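Cross-check.
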Amino acid sequence: MTGVLADLQPGQAAEIVSIDCDRQMSRRLMEMGLLPGTGVRVVRIAPLGDPMELRLRDYALSVRRSEAVQITVRLEERA
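Predicted model, tokenized:
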């Protein structure tokens, strides 16, 4: 099932499918490690909903909600 990164709740994991924003923002996000095929897990969300802390590639990364709504993800199936 696909959705956007901003819809994930703490503890949920997904795989990045695509980044759908302008070229400059897309490049910045990719330089931070948010590449298609990369697994990502939401660690926590700030009290007012912005930013979200993510865990990917053995490090933590915070992204704004405005950026997260432009990242399409595929939810990981729970076994």
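Residues 54 and 60 are 6 Å apart (CA to CA). The chain has one domain: 2-75. Passed to J.P. for a second look.
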